[in-house]
Automatic annotation (TrEMBL):
Residues 184-269 form the Ig-like domain. Belongs to the protein-tyrosine phosphatase family. Receptor class 2B subfamily. This is protein-tyrosine-phosphatase. The keyword ATP-binding does not apply. It catalyses: O-phospho-L-tyrosyl-[protein] + H2O = L-tyrosyl-[protein] + phosphate. GO terms for molecular function: protein tyrosine phosphatase activity. Residues 22-182 form the MAM domain. It is a single-pass type I membrane protein.
Length: 487
């Protein structure tokens, strides 16, 4: 044990000699050490001096140090003593003595160590102790890795307990530019950027032995603590701790740092940023530039977006408004032609944008809902079928005309007929059919006459005619033709 002590002493002397950056023994109060009482706390730490008499219980240590006398304050009141800011790229170990003491062993309050970065929020303590620890000084060390140009300020905060009983004291602070002996040091924690909705992972790597029993957590600047998900020893002097934030949103965007804590001290990393990017989405629907029976020419219209860039992929997603399937095509020009569409059909077209990283595809933008034009009818209707022949009428029917023939939802079916009576007398007429009833009776015909019939399919884009069919009406003894109607 004595050997160990000697080694420790030699080690301390060595580190003192080569790397003492600052500190305070409070012989003349905190001022000469450039330590400041916080102006916005509830009260100040009291300086006790070896030279001046004070009214502390005799069992408390002699000497000069800073103390909080709990009975002088209300429960929950706090005081903070701020160390000068540390800025340089360095590994700092801050060593200090503390005690929390009350005669009857009651809790005097809590000693919190805060590390404030760039004069930002105080955040949660990186180390804290509460309850009576006894009348003798204890030592703890803080491993604070600092990264220029950020400013790190260590703050000793005492909080008075409900019992308002006893003393909280600190002394002999040493700031060493040297790794701590007992608390692990974190390597620089890098920023993490993810797309909203993804899981974010921070990996903290620390050096220092015997970290197995340390408490480890990820501290958010707003005060939230995230428990460790996994720890792994890289080698006997280095370990990695993984922290997971599930399916993050913009509200998780903040600064985070790694903290370890044991009775003997704490280690704290730099603050790293969690950057949550919103996958991009177009503000406006695509614009229609041109339309045909089987194509739609669109302008993606995706220059104005909601969310974050850069955009690495643009896609057009389209479907029939009445259909269930959706097709998606990558597009690398400002305009895109959708081919092989159905005529006279309504389509819904949206633009999808993607930024880098997993989950980088945003919601589709607002839709363009538009129709293709009609196409010319596919083919001539099949020849008419003759259902019945009489002297005065002929009944005809035809195959029902599906969309795949009409290629338009609005179309007319017309039956035209003509015949001659005598040598120069003729009659010709066309009748619009009800497209839903594929049959018709052509009546008021003369008997024993060749009647020529044909069918015409018309839509706004064109017409197709069937072959003519010539049918001879039956005889019924009446004259073939006369002027006026055949009844
Ligand atoms: C601190 O380290 C960073 C990165 O290693 C370097 O860019 C910077 O110049 C250093 N600053 C100082 C003051 O040493
Ligand atoms: C230390 O502070 C944390 C908040 O960061 C709190 O949850 C914990 O109870 C405190 N521990 C002690 C011993 O006061
Ligand atoms: C996030 O992690 C949870 C649990 O590990 C998992 O179930 C989920 O699928 C992950 N989410 C994404 C977007 O990867
Ligand atoms: C048109 O569609 C019907 C079914 O709706 C089908 O039986 C027929 O073969 C199709 N005709 C053509 C020319 O595609
Ligand atoms: C056709 O018949 C009408 C009488 O029905 C007659 O007036 C006319 O001259 C005839 N035309 C020819 C070219 O024979
Ligand atoms: C109808 O036409 C056919 C063939 O062209 C012919 O043989 C027949 O005599 C005609 N019938 C009448 C009543 O003119
Ligand atoms: C169909 O018939 C109606 C009425 O006869 C007419 O107004 C319309 O233009 C026709 N449509 C086509 C495509 O020919």
């Amino acid at each position: 044990y004595i050997g160990q002590m000697a080694t420790a002493l030699a080690f301390t002397l060595l580190t003192l000699k080569f790397s003492l950056l600052g500190g305070c023994t409070f012989d003349d109060g905190p001022g000469p050490c450039d330590y400041h009482q916080d102006l916005y706390d509830d009260f100040d730490w009291v300086h006790v001096s070896a030279q001046e008499p004070h009214y502390l219980p005799p069992e408390l240590p002699q000497g000069s140090y800073m103390i909080v006398i709990s009975s002088d304050h209300d429960p929950g009141e706090k005081t903070r003593l701020q160390l000068p800011a540390m800025k340089e790229n360095d590994t700092h170990c801050i060593d200090f003595s503390y005690l929390l003491y009350s005669k009857n062993g009651a809790n005097p309050g809590t000693l919190n160590i805060l590390v404030r970065v760039n004069k930002g929020p105080l955040a949660n303590p990186i180390w804290n102790i509460t309850g009576c620890t006894g009348k003798d000084w204890l030592r703890a060390e803080l491993a604070v890795s600092t990264f220029w140009p950020n400013e790190y300020q260590v703050i000793f905060e005492a909080e008075v307990s409900d019992g308002r009983n006893g003393y909280i004291a600190i002394d002999d602070i040493q700031v060493l530019s040297y790794p701590c002996d007992k608390s692990p040091h974190f390597l620089r924690l890098g920023d993490v950027e993810v797309n909203a909705g993804q899981n974010a992972t921070f990996q903290c790597i620390a050096t220092g032995r015997d970290a197995v029993n340390n408490k480890l957590w990820l501290q958010r600047r707003n005060g939230e603590d995230i428990p460790v998900a996994q720890t792994k020893n890289i080698n006997h002097r280095r370990f990695a701790a993984t922290f997971k934030l599930q399916e993050v949103t913009k509200t998780d965007q903040d600064l985070y740092r790694c903290v370890t804590q044991s009775e003997r001290g704490s280690g704290v990393s730099n603050f790293a940023q969690l950057i949550v990017r919103e996958p991009p989405r177009p503000i406006a629907p695509p614009q229609l530039l041109g339309v045909g029976p089987t194509y739609l020419l669109i302008q993606l219209n995706a220059n104005s977006i909601i969310g974050d860039g850069p955009i690495i992929l643009k896609e057009v997603e389209y479907r029939m408004t009445s259909g269930t399937w959706t097709e998606t095509h990558a597009v690398n020009a400002p305009t895109y032609k959708l081919w092989h569409l159905d005529p006279d059909t309504e389509y819904e077209i949206r633009v999808l944008l993607t930024r880098p990283g997993e989950g980088g595809t945003g919601q589709p933008g607002p839709p363009l809902i538009t129709r293709t034009k009609c196409a010319e009818p596919m083919r001539t209707p099949k020849t008419l079928k003759i259902a019945e022949i009489q002297a005065r009428h002929i009944a005809v029917d035809w195959e029902s005309l599906g969309y795949n023939i009409t290629r338009c939802h609005t179309f007319n079916v017309t039956i035209c007929y003509h015949y001659f009576c005598g040598h120069n007398e003729s009659k010709a007429d066309c009748l619009d059919m009800d497209p839903k009833a594929p049959q018709h009776v052509v009546d008021h015909l003369p008997p024993y006459t060749n009647v020529s019939l044909k069918m015409i399919l018309t839509n706004p884009e064109g017409r197709k005619e069937s072959e003519e069919t010539i049918i001879q009406t039956d005889e019924d003894g009446m004259p073939k033709c006369y002027y006026g109607n055949y009844v």
